[in-house]
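Lab notebook, bench 4. Still working through the backlog of constructs that have no structural model yet. Next entry is a single chain of 65 residues. Request: give me the structure tokens for it.
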Amino acid sequence: MIRLMLREELYAQLVGNESHHKDEPFKVFIGYDYLMGIHTNINLQHLKEQLLNIGMYLENPSGES
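Model written out:
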């Protein structure tokens, strides 16, 4: 499935939908040009340095640094 998603032959999302986590939705997807996105309401800023060290990028949709 992941291979098909990376080849853009299939689109799918993994979505967390547990009743006790409704206030913290979680979604994982693979997008255009090998972009992997994780959408969550959980603040991940504390992971920013670790992500940068392994070549990943943490985008904050609110525009804050």
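Notes after review: Helices lie at 2-6, 48-53. The mean pLDDT is 76. Flag for follow-up if needed.
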